[in-house]
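User: Could you check the structure of this?
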Amino acid sequence: MKSAYAERLLRLSSEAEAALRPGAPRGTLESTAAARLPPLLSTYHERYPDVQIELVTGESTALLHRVRSFDVEAAFISEPFCAEGLEAQEAFTEELALRAPKTMAPIKGARDLRNRTVIAFATGCSYRRILEDWLSMSKVVPERVLELASYHAIVACVAAGSGVAIMPRSVLARGPRGK
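Assistant: Sure, the predicted structure tokens are below.
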């Protein structure tokens, strides 16, 4: 009981401090920063040119941790996640796409990915978790996981034939071919 009360006091203190510091950082997934936020930020900066917004990127689990530890004021994250004690509001609906090298046979199911490398963000990425859960339901374990820190690198490695990846279609639409 006391720890819940202390946590509430800390949260209220952080909210009060954040209200006094308009430049408090916000967290976001790289995919959201690349595909969803640019037009919103552009419009916002036109309306409020004196307001500075600081963004930090990361994967869902790390961003949730940063919100809970008051390092960031709020964060755009993806499901699935556990947000006990935090409020959540849907901002975007992302359609995920499985990407594979052109030389690979069409993928009809998870078993077609046996003995393949999965290319993904670090553990804690919600999209990676979705792919791993899908593979796990068919008892498929990737040959290896290549962890990268950007969608550009992931797309390039898939195109080079290094493995398969999952990512939001909105990211693909913003890429060189989707402009």
